[in-house]
Amino acid sequence: MSGNEDGTVRIYRQTANGSWERKEANIVHKDGVLSANFSPHGCHLVTASDNGVVKITELQSNNSSLAVIE
Q1: Which of 6, 9, 12, 48 could tie 35 with a disulfide, CB 3.0–4.6 Å?
Q2: Choice between 33 and 68, residue whose per-residue pLDDT is larger
Q3: Is residue 40's pLDDT more than 90?
């Protein structure tokens, strides 16, 4: 997983043959992403951007409207 200066978050997964592929994620911030962490159970991703916005995204549905804290 990577948080980027352009406000996007990229998630990668390892394939059966050991290579890495990017998984689509509809997580976009207006400013650069400073932090991104998975929840302990791995079902959610919490991201924080440079402008103080925190998003909680449910990974199964790619729904980032669970919580947006400004």
Answers
A1: 48
A2: 33
A3: yes
| 23 contacts: CB under 8 Å, gap ≥ 6 | 11, 12, 13
pLDDT above 80: residue 64: no
Assigned token pair, 18: 């050991």
Strand partners, 48: 35, 54
What tokens appear for 9 in the block?
A: 């978050």
**Residue 58's beta-bridge partner residues?**
44, 63
pLDDT tens per residue across span 26-37: 788 889 999 999
CB 54 within 8 A of CB 47: yes
Phi, psi angles (nearest 5°) of residue 47: -125, 150
11 in Cβ contact with 22 (< 8 Å):
yes
